[in-house]
Amino acid sequence: MSNTLVRRPQRRKALEEADMFAGSQLCLARKSRKMSQERLGEHLSVSFQQVQKYEKGKNRMTPGILAAAADVLGVSPAFFFKNTDGQSAEPTVETLQLATLMASKDALELNALFARIDDPKLRHHIIGCMRQVVEAFAPRLDRSNGFQGKIESGLPFRNA
């Protein structure tokens, strides 16, 4: 009988998928913080090439690297793992940014006022007007008020 370890293809595939998911989450969190791979690598004491390999799922992150990355990027370690329905075990950075925005006094007032409008056509026109305002002023908002450069779903998000 041989002492060689026989790897099961299904298990290896699951591990590779988990590495790819963790890497894509690392990339998502890093980009949302507008951090370069080089800068993240400095925080993790690895090269930017190693960060690239982590993000592509080519190299597996150790528990220590995962914990350090979570700390640097402001997410919990669970952010890097899927739950049973295939989603991140933690909310995405974009979800957290949206939740922060929606908790602001202005957003709450805007939503309360919008909720009082019963006419669907009027609601549709108001949304169209808001899109035009955002598109017209997004470059100015981006530079002067700390909004991130990309408008997601028509909503500018403030830096967390």
The helix tally amounts to 7
- The count of strands amounts to 0
Question: How would you state the average pLDDT, rounded?
Answer: 77
> In the CATH classification, which architecture of the largest domain applies?
Orthogonal Bundle
- Secondary-structure element pattern, one letter each: HHHHHHH
Summarize this, please?
61% of the residues lie in helices and 0% in strands.
Structure characterization notes:
With about 160 residues, the chain is mostly helical. It has two domains: about 10-90, Orthogonal Bundle (434 Repressor (Amino-terminal Domain)); about 90-160, no CATH class. About 60% of the residues lie in helices and about 0% in strands. The chain is built from seven helices and no strands. It is elongated and about 70 Å long. Mean pLDDT is about 75; it is low at about 140-160.
